[in-house]
Write a structure and sequence with these properties.
3-stranded antiparallel beta sheet, 1 helix, 20% strand, globular
């Protein structure tokens, strides 16, 4: 998949994992024990988010790239 959505990636000491948020897709986030695993998990979650939005007839935001507040 060619993801064009902005990913915010950070280390969570509390979770002992990398956490990835996708601000353009509300509620879309994933984690992983490694940076690579977290990003791969996020790619899967983005596909699922988009599939679910389509099934529910909801709008799917176009990727905007870097957000001003990020």
């Amino acid at each position: 998949m060619s993801n064009r959505y902005e990913l915010i990636i950070y280390w969570s000491k509390e979770d002992d994992a990398f956490v990835v948020e996708v601000p353009e897709l509300p509620g879309c986030m994933a984690d992983g024990k490694t940076y690579r695993e977290a990003v791969e998990n996020t790619e899967c979650v983005i596909r699922e988010w988009i599939d679910t939005a389509k099934e529910m007839g909801r709008d799917i935001p176009e990727p905007r790239g870097r957000l001003l507040y990020a």
